């Protein structure tokens, strides 16, 4: 089992748009592609507490992760949702990503 942690820092003032995109579309599209989002949160306290969304994905293997991300990124519905959500400008300023392997 591997876990992918993603931290999205938004363009100032655009966190609500990213939260809306996740809650109305992204998590459903993850499920459509067999992707498990095991944790989704905004940062409440600490660095980037006004501009950060953090989530954790769970995959069986690196191959599983690569295959599912490729299918998600190629999904025409995802591309449409992303474009529509960015009609007023970019949402995400930067992405930090880590992949962890569970040991217990």
Automatic annotation (TrEMBL):
Signal peptide: none annotated. Residues 3-101 form the NIPSNAP domain. Pfam families: NIPSNAP. This is NIPSNAP family protein. It comes from Pseudonocardia petroleophila.
